[in-house]
Amino acid sequence: MSSSPAISLISSSRSLRLSRVLPTKRNAAMSSFRVSSLKPPSLNRIFIRIPHGSSKKASFFTSSRPFSPVMEWQDCTAKIEVDVPASVAYNCYSDREAIPNWMPFISSVKVLEDKPDLSRWSLKYNAFGRDLEYSWLARNMQPIPNQKIHWRSLEGLPNRGAVRFYPKGPSSCLIELTVSYEVPQLLTPVASVLQPFLENLLKGGLDRFAAYAKSLGSTR
Q1: Is 61 exposed, middle or buried (0-12, 13-18, 19+ CB in 10 A)?
Q2: Distance (Å, rounded) from C-alpha 50 to C-alpha 57?
Q3: Which residues pair with 124 in a beta bridge?
Q4: Pick from 73, 6, 95, 77: which is nearest to 46 by CA?
Q5: How far is C-alpha 212 from the geometric centre of its chain's CA atoms?
Q6: Whole-number Å distance between alpha carbons of 70 and 165
Q7: CA angle, corner 82, sides to 125 and 85, nearest 5?
Q8: Nearest CA to 194 among 212, 205, 179, 207?
Q9: Is the distance from CB of 108 to CB of 129 less than 8 angstroms?
Q10: For the segment 34-44, what is each residue's pLDDT rounded down to a tens digit?
Q11: Contact between 74 and 178 (Cβ < 8 Å)
Q12: pTM tops 0.70, yes or no
């Protein structure tokens, strides 16, 4: 016979009896208490074993699901002044399928033919000693012509963001790119350095966009 005490939970349609069985001799007394307010629909017997000498209390409210922490969101911002009018920069950035030309970590963007406000994005990049690959479906929200483009993901990697265009004169503008994303579980250990790392990537992308938009604007 085991030397560990056990708790026996006996229920019937009228009452619930909770008994604690101690590891004593066969004729040891049993202590119990009665809860008349609980009325289970059927007769059940549950044994919960507690290690002998343990000071922990038994709990009848347990879950088999693993603990799932709230995922962390991060915000990244990058800015650049571009030597093209805001309207030219806006039109260039509106071409979503061309974005991999200046954002090399974005491997592809495909606009859905039947729903042009939706697009499928793929990200591939080697960083932190890993080959990272993520994808998502994004919806472009109602834009403000020559001023703002913004989106949010509908499935896949959770993210949202906006590109804003501020005129600085007749032939230049300031571009501000903001991106918010949920840190993937794989990258949680490097979350503290992920934000500045991505901001550098975005800044490099805007540098390439400035050259891209300027070359494209000069041909029009």
Answers
A1: exposed
A2: 8
A3: 133
A4: 6
A5: 32
A6: 34
A7: 125
A8: 179
A9: no
A10: 433 444 444 34
A11: no
A12: no
To the nearest 10 degrees (0 to 180), the angle between helices 86-94 and 191-218 is: 110
Q: Which of 178, 182, 188 is nearest to 77 (CA)?
A: 178
Radius of gyration in angstroms for the set of CA atoms belonging to the chain, rounded to a whole number: 31
Contact yes or no for 48/58 (Cβ under 8 A) = yes
Whole-number Å distance between alpha carbons of 39 and 11: 8
Count of C-beta atoms within a 10 Å radius of residue 76:
20
Q: 67 has which bridge partners?
A: none
End-to-end CA gap in the chain: 91
The residues pairing with 6 across neighbouring beta strands, listed in sequence order, are: 21, 49
Nearest Cα to Cα of residue 174 among 185, 165, 162: 165
Compute the distance between CA of residue 169 and CA of residue 35 in angstroms, rounded to an integer: 79
- Measured CA to CA, the distance from residue 88 to residue 83 in angstroms comes to 10
Residue given tokens 């009665």 in the structure block: 34
Output phi, psi for 7, to 5 deg: -110, 130
Per-residue pLDDT reduced to its tens digit, 121-171: 999 999 998 999 999 999 999 999 999 999 999 999 999 999 999 999 899
